[in-house]
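agent: user wants the full assembly modeled, not chains individually. Plan: 1) parse entity lines 2) check alphabet per entity 3) run joint structure prediction 4) return tokens. Steps 1-2 passed, two entities, 222 residues total. Proceeding.
--- entities ---
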Amino acid sequence: RTPVRAKDEL
Amino acid sequence: MNIFRLTGDLSHLAAIIILLLKIWKSRSCAGISGKSQVLFALVFTTRYLDLLTSFISLYNTTMKVIYIGCSYATVYLIYMKLKATYDGNHDTFRVEFLIVPVGGLAFLVNHDFSPLEILWTFSIYLESVAILPQLFMISKTGEAETITTHYLFFLGLYRALYLINWIWRFYFEGFFDMIAIVAGVVQTILYCDFFYLYVTKVLKGKKLSLPA
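--- prediction returned ---
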């Protein structure tokens, strides 16, 4: 599981 | 989107609206830390620059615009319109001690060394400590208006719900963002002392006063 920045979160 | 993130966003929205209405209706920002509100406006400004570059959903865009609008309106009320009611003598937290380390850390620990990503990381780290001036001010005045405690409760609850949202997304989507999670844990921990007082005092109809 690669960390990824949440683009859809406020 | 999951129920935890949705209720988290609504809790955050409730907090922002409660504060704005409290200041607007009472025509007073007594007991409110202007410094924390400036930090929150900075958090939203640096986090939501992607409003200009990408469209994710109507919900996403609408909420971002509301958050930015309300936070700037709150800062405007505190420092311009209702400046006479601002309690500057008790709002003395040295915010430079927050901004400088957070700014440095955003450069060192981030997902991608690009301007938008650095600013997003800065906003995540800053948000986790942005409430400190407000909590510091309450410890100095020794009390908080009940409406202010409701504001703080929903504000603290929102990130706690986001923590559950991240557990949910890890389990169902294999997603996790260490930066947001660590900052979110720190942010929620800072509220624990307040949550204890809120539950044991305010929910029993008492006024929130310190020392407990």
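agent: reporting back. The first helix of chain B runs from residue 3 to 26. The radius of gyration of chain B is 17 Å.
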